[in-house]
Amino acid sequence: MNNDGEYTIFCPKCGNEMKNTSRYCMKCGHLNIDHPDNKKVSKYFEDSESTVVRNSNGKYIMSNDILKRNDSNYMKKNSRYCFIFNLITFLLTVICFSVIYYRYNGGFSNVLSSNVWSIFIVIPLMYIYCYAYELLFIKMGYSWWKALIPIYNVMLISKKVFDNMFLGLIIIVPIIGQIYLLVLMYKLAIKFNRNGLLMVLFPFIMIPLISFSEDLYEKENDSGNFDYESTYGMKKKFLILCSIFLLIGLLMLLFKFPIIDYFKNKWNEVQSILK
Fold it and tell me: What digits encode the pLDDT tens for the residues 40-56?
């Protein structure tokens, strides 16, 4: 708090930082009901019970209960849209590729003898990673669809990690951009209390691991520790669906290349060489 009695609060609707002397949020237009000039209209707003409190770091914020309620609703809606989008696109992708294989090979038996098993393995793995990447953005407080926009998604991660959005534009610079991306991934893993080196070496494993777990972005944050787990009930359904298709693909692979006969033939080859 400065000498003029000003301190930083957070908008109970969008979470944007604002001064306690501001009549409304400059980002979403939500009125600051604790402002003296807004007291007359406070009864018309759902969040009229909001108060200004000081958190453990000494910063003034809006009531933590209100922030938690609004954040939870936003997270649930964000997660729901993310799940629906990925579910529909995943099923459409599998159906389209299956129809193409069927028409190209001219029959179901010919399809089974082809490499159709690959789409039941590659596509689920691809969508599991994409879904996890979108969930990662939700955990950072962004809308899920922003993870799908190239360059812009790196800029948002840069804003979250280094507090500088335009620093992410380094990604377009050859070589330097790739080095910056590795550093960014390292720092991002640290923010989620994970091993940064493993993130750099195995991002396709670490990102789903972070997204599908209960890891939070900087557990000691200004607005308190939110229960993110309640917003991720649908992730299990998506993983089960992808696992079913993965199992189908593996069974097709074993059907095309019987694993027992394969090892028998290899064993016979080894015996013949030894003789």
Answer: 555 444 443 444 444 44
